[in-house]
From TrEMBL:
Residues 430-459 are annotated as: Disordered. It comes from the Bacteria. Pfam families: Alpha-amylase. It comes from Tichowtungia aerotolerans. Belongs to the glycosyl hydrolase 13 family. GO terms for biological process: glycogen catabolic process. GO terms for molecular function: amylo-alpha-1,6-glucosidase activity. The gene is glgX. This is Glycogen debranching protein GlgX. SMART domains: Aamy. Residues 430-445 have a biased composition (Basic and acidic residues). Residues 108-533 form the Glycosyl hydrolase family 13 catalytic domain.
């Protein structure tokens, strides 16, 4: 028997783990009801409280209640319902957290049958994947599952193979309103504050009908799969919506907080997430809860992968120390139902950084080192040594994990930080609208503004910004590993300098689709980059370079690369699929012409290394093998 609800032949079975001395099931006919139509005393068996209810039916609502009369949401509910629409505060009082009575979320009993038809997972290999990170509401404007389907042709045109959604588990966007204070007008837009772990976000459904989010989510998954696009969910198991103990109870606190949360010796919640609490992920009960949750989203919702928010928190033991072999990570990798899905770790939390050494053989990492080194090379002219390491797949980080660059999820920007356009337009964060006096968000962004902070009417500055965006995008897609693109970066989306827009449900966070036409050149450039990557296996290696006949590094003017001081580099990938990548981050023209001429060395006969090269792509006009300042070019051997 697993926790949750199960439709049986003779009724509906409810089961939940709790250390409470007693537990009652409450059934409601309407989501706004404050009084249940029935209360059923549950029985305890094999560590679970359970009840088989013959008269419970799909369409009803339910909650649990412990011996202290706390209302408790089932964290395993397959659908959750608030009797309101997105951001609607009608009937709520600011400063009451959590909201009880008519606004307390209730679980929904659903009949979750769905006509999947011939739906099959695309199973795109990692070396052929192009991940697109986006926020469902911010991307569509209206913020619902079905409207996202209309954007699928755009994603196909761009060349995307997988969409990575910011959290779609049920959360409460009115979290700040309910806490009250000067920030009560802001919303929890990103959704990193989970209420229902098995339930898709109900207010992302186009229909107000309770449980509609389940069928609409499945409809979106089916449509993405039909287009050959995978769906990856950003999942938050490191903390929950209950936050600090003083904030009130939704579920785990009233069920068994000693099992579900890490505590210090004084009984206070440990805070490795920076959000007030840390889930006790390696406790046997919590571990099984998380594995069951992942299995549900794969088997019943047909999800193709997960990105684990602050995944280092999932590696901590009872006292908060990092475990060498976390039982949860082992259990996830051993679970047969999860055998073929993509597993991606954000390999850090507030006290640990595990990029390159995150436990588990199947997990890929968000490669924060890639982001930092590429930004520093282009924006602050760091030498080419770090650039070469990242271009080649970050073997310094991942070689010990199985000799594969596919452990590296490469990115320049993500939801957390500047957009690409802002990265080349702002040197300082501008988060005043977040109500935290600009203290929140990363202070060290390795950004550049080319002389003007924010928007500029200067054509020369805008031209340099455009070229720099091309340089950064090209480096992303020409590097070994798995590229991840932030939604809208392909046509210059801006957040007006806000690098932590978690609470901004407005023009700061919404994708401005008018920029697609305005910045068509950048979009076409990005599309060409993705097509180039897909056309050349040399850019999608499953193993690291050996340096023995597979790659040659070249410097300008016939010299060897100056790893420690140089800012120009050539990468000649040899073999059946031959590519030449030339990069110039000097402040003057740089020629690689000498490397293309015949070798007139001491041999009896000169051995030409020159080939009939074809220019495939460049971030600026290129004269043969001479590159202008701050530019990049890619050549293939002409067939």
């Amino acid at each position: 028997m697993n926790p949750g609800i199960t439709l049986r032949k003779h009724g509906i079975e409810f089961a939940i783990h709790s250390s409470a001395g007693s537990l009652r099931l409450m059934l409601f006919d309407r989501p706004e009801d404050e009084t249940p139509i029935r209360e059923i005393a549950m029985k305890r068996k094999h560590g679970l409280w359970h009840a088989l209810v013959p008269y419970a039916t799909p369409g009803q609502f339910y909650l649990y209640k412990n011996g202290e009369n706390q209302w408790l949401l089932d964290p395993c509910a397959k659908a959750v319902h608030f009797p309101r629409t997105w951001a609607d505060t009608t009937g709520l009082t600011a400063g009451i957290f959590p909201a009880f009575g008519t606004m307390f979320p209730k679980g929904v009993i659903i009949d979750d049958r769905f006509a999947w038809g011939t739906d099959r997972p695309p199973n795109t290999p990692l070396n052929k994947s192009v991940i697109y990170e986006t926020h469902l509401r911010g991307f569509t404007g209206s913020g619902n599952y079905l409207d996202f389907i209309e954007k699928i042709p755009y994603l196909k045109e761009l060349g995307i193979t997988a969409v990575e959604f910011l959290p779609l588990f049920e959360f409460n966007e009115l979290e700040f309103f309910l806490k009250g204070g000067s920030r009560e007008h802001l919303l929890n837009f990103w959704g990193y504050s989970t209420l229902g772990f098995f339930a898709p976000m109900s207010r992302y459904a186009s229909s107000p009908e309770p449980g509609a989010a389940v069928s609409e989510f499945k409809t979106l998954v089916r449509a993405l799969h039909e287009a050959g696009i995978e769906i990856i969910l950003d999942v938050v198991f490191n903390h929950t919506a209950e936050a600090e103990q003083k904030d009130g109870t939704y579920h785990f606190q009233g069920l068994d907080e000693d099992t579900y949360y890490l505590k210090d010796k004084n009984g206070a919640y440990q805070n490795w997430s920076g959000c007030g609490n840390t889930v006790n992920a390696n406790h046997p009960v919590t571990r099984q809860f998380i594995v069951n949750c992942l299995k549900y989203w794969v088997q019943e919702m047909h999800v193709d992968g997960f990105r684990f928010d602050l995944a280092t928190s999932l590696c901590r033991g009872n006292d908060g120390t990092l475990l060498e072999k976390p039982p949860l990570i082992k259990a996830i990798e051993a679970e047969p139902a999860l055998k073929h899905i993509k597993l991606i770790a954000e390999a850090w939390d507030c006290g640990g950084y595990q990029v390159g050494h995150f436990p588990g053989k199947r997990f890929s990492d968000w490669n924060g080192k890639f982001r930092d080194d590429i930004r520093r090379f282009w924006n602050h002219r760091h030498p080419v040594g770090e650039l070469a390491t990242r271009l080649a797949g970050s073997s310094d980080l991942y070689r010990h994990k199985g000799s594969s660059p596919l452990h590296s999820i490469n990115f320049i920007t993500a939801h957390d930080g500047f957009t690409l356009a802002d990265l080349v337009s702002y040197e300082q964060k501008h988060n005043e609208a977040n109500g935290e006096e600009n203290r929140d968000g990363e202070n060290h962004n390795d950004s550049i503004n080319f002389g003007v902070e924010g928007p500029s009417d200067n054509p020369a500055i805008n031209a340099r910004r455009l070229q720099q965006q091309k340089n950064l995008l090209a480096t992303l897609f020409l590097s070994q590993g798995v590229p991840m693109l932030l939604a809208g970066d392909e046509f210059g989306r801006t957040q007006q300098g806000n690098n932590n827009a978690y609470c901004q449900d407005n023009e700061i966070s919404w994708v401005d689709w008018s920029l697609l036409e305005k910045n068509k050149e950048l979009f076409e450039f990005t599309k060409q980059l993705i097509a180039l990557r897909k056309a050349h296996p040399a850019l999608r290696r499953k193993t690291f370079f050996t340096g023995k006949g597979d790659v040659k590094w070249i410097g300008p003017d016939g010299k060897d690369p100056d790893w420690n001081n140089g800012h120009a580099l050539g990468m000649h990938i040899t073999g059946k699929d031959e590519l030449l990548i030339l990069i110039n981050n000097e402040e003057h023209d740089v020629s690689f012409e000498e490397h293309m001429r015949p070798d007139t060395g001491s041999g009896a006969q000169a051995q030409p290394v020159s080939k009939d090269w074809k220019l495939e792509l460049s971030s600026a006009p290129v004269d043969s093998f001479t590159l202008p300042p701050q530019s990049l070019a890619v050549y293939t051997v002409r067939p």
